[in-house]
Design goal:
This protein has 537 residues and is an alpha/beta fold. Helices cover 30% and strands 23% of the residues. Strands 2-1-10-9-11-12-13-14-15 form a nine-stranded mixed beta sheet, sandwiched between helices. Strands 16, 17, 18, 19 and 20 form a five-stranded antiparallel beta sheet that branches. Strand 12, helix 12 and strand 13 form a beta-alpha-beta unit. It is globular. The chain starts with 11 loop residues before the first helix and ends with a helix.
């Protein structure tokens, strides 16, 4: 893979890309994906949008303050000046960003990239040991941290890490320094294939991986999924629950609205209750969240009130048809389901409007290619389950991680999901590859059993795994969160087993049922099945 001459002075990121033979095949078939060789994505997202729409357009709506596009541009430029003039940041340095969703975190992300540095945004809930691991692996030199979340970063005790807080009472913090800086900054003319961000996976397997993404990748997700499926408008108001350190949130709450000239509501805590309040208060028109949150909002007294809502996007977990139908009945809006990954940066299979088939993830997003294959990588016939393989303008490039060989095979990204493609090109989720349960010679998809359980009126949430069994190899075990007032008894477990037998083939029923108060999710809304496997119940 031939890369453009880099603008990075600190060449760590490019030096630690995987070997070229381990890269996925990159596909740039759409004309709009043929970007110039010199490109700074922050400049494209912010400066060019201000040029198109003017500086006075509403941009970011935060808990304590709201900014226009002109105000965001000024602050992002000032952040870039503080980094380069006060902290000595040079192009290619890695800058860790830690804080909840708010306008200053967006200004920091844009400022880091305008300065030619590499943004490493992390979840604000991570603890010292986790932060130390990420900062060491990415060789982070500087950090911009919300002062309320500085303690764990200080405790991480990363050698040589220079931390500058923002939002506290320190008269010399980032915000104070920005106030003394000019409002202009000439963005570093980075290469389109210079690394601009390292996104760490959210840890559903317990082992986060750093994914290296280029400037052109950030624009590509806006010019494929957002432009071709979501189709945002300049008057849209975006909102959602995912943190900006999660690429689902970065795309849905920063990249897509900025590319379209729209505005974004940034919630520091994206609970279903706060999402519901934001929908009404700010007349949100585009919502990004996970299936769990859609179900939780439906369960709130009075349900969702969303007078301006026109687009809802779901990702992170499988969206079952029952949730889709219930949300449409309550709001009149059809949820756009999608599958993406941190490795691919955002969504690559999805459908909207008349193309939606409830229960299906959708069809391939224009600009991407996908197929369902067997273990050898050969395509399987439509209607037969297999491994999902995808390629497009974005792809997996792990930072110093042997798992690159597992994710990329023969030029394709293997997402670790089992899918069926039908004759019309729709993709139907079956399970994670490591969640496929083989019991007495039968293949059982965990999601099918989960959906059967969720059809029971006494079940609020359900997750299914396979557990070892001496006779059958594995048996199905269900973890169930019951609705209020339903007793967690052996009789309830037995009734659920009979219910599942009546809904799907009897051999698929859960031979063990455990009741939990809540299922374990990551802060980004993904189910942590590995924790269920370790559960004593």
């Amino acid at each position: 893979m031939d890369l453009s001459p880099s603008a990075h002075v600190d060449t760590f990121a490019r030096d630690h890309l995987p070997p070229a033979e381990l890269w996925p095949t990159m596909v740039h078939t759409l004309p709009e994906l043929r970007y110039p060789s010199r490109l700074n994505c922050a400049e494209e997202l912010l400066d060019r949008t201000v040029e198109r729409f003017g500086p006075d357009r509403p941009c970011l709506i935060g808990q304590d303050e709201s900014w226009t596009y002109g105000e965001l541009l000024r602050r992002a430029n000032q952040v870039a000046r503080v980094l380069t003039e006060d902290l000595g940041v040079v192009p290619g340095n890695r800058v860790l960003l830690r804080g909840p969703n708010n306008p200053w975190l967006v200004a920091c992300w844009l400022g880091v990239i305008k300065a030619g540095a590499v943004a490493v945004a992390v979840l604000p809930v991570l603890r010292a040991g986790e932060l130390a691991e990420i900062a060491t692996k990415a060789r982070v030199s500087h950090a911009l941290c919300d002062s309320r979340f500085a303690d764990d970063l200080v405790k991480a005790d990363v050698d040589g890490l220079r931390i500058l807080g923002y939002g506290g009472k320190d008269g010399d913090d980032l915000i104070a320094r920005c106030a003394g800086k000019p409002a202009d900054f000439a963005a570093v003319p980075t290469a389109a294939d210079d690394v601009c961000m390292i996104a760490f996976t959210s840890g559903t397997t317990g082992k986060p991986k750093g994914c290296l993404h280029f400037h052109r990748d950030v624009l590509a997700i806006a010019d494929t999924f957002a432009a071709r499926v979501l189709r945002p408008r300049p008057d849209d108001v975006f909102a959602g629950s995912p943190p900006l350190s999660f690429t689902f949130g970065l795309g849905g709450l920063v990249v897509f609205p900025l590319r379209a000239g729209a505005s974004s509501v940034l919630l520091e805590r994206g609970s279903p209750q706060l999402l519901l309040a934001a929908l009404a208060e700010h007349r949100v028109s585009v919502l990004f969240t996970a299936p769990t949150a859609y179900r939780a909002m439906l369960a709130e007294p009075g349900g969702p009130e969303a007078p301006a809502l026109r687009r809802c996007v779901s990702a992170g977990e499988h969206l079952n048809a029952r949730t889709w139908e219930a949300w449409r009945e309550a709001t009149g809006v059809e949820i756009i389901d999608g599958i993406g990954s941190t490795e691919m940066l955002h969504i690559f299979i999805s459908s909207a409007d008349a193309d939606i088939r409830p229960g299906s993830t959708g069809r391939v997003v224009p600009g991407y290619e996908a197929r369902v294959v067997d273990d050898a990588g050969d395509p399987v016939p439509d209607g037969r389950p297999g491994l999902l393989a995808v390629r497009g303008p974005t792809g997996c490039r792990y930072l110093a991680d042997d798992r690159q060989r597992e994710y990329v095979r023969g030029g394709w990204n293997f997402t670790g999901d089992v899918y069926i493609r039908d004759a019309d090109g729709y993709y139907w989720y079956q399970s994670r590859a490591d969640d496929l349960i083989i019991s007495a010679g039968y293949n059982i998809a965990a999601v099918e059993v989960e959906e059967a359980l969720l059809r029971s009126p006494v079940v609020a949430e359900a997750a299914v795994i396979g557990v070892p069994d001496a006779e059958r190899g594995q048996v199905v075990k269900a973890f169930v969160v019951l609705r209020d007032g339903v007793p967690a008894t052996d009789a309830t477990a037995a009734s659920l087993q009979e219910f599942v037998k009546a809904e799907i083939a009897p051999y698929k029923y859960p031979r063990a049922v455990a009741f939990l108060d809540a299922l374990p999710y990551t802060p980004t809304g993904k189910l942590q099945r590995f924790k269920l496997r370790d559960h004593p119940g």
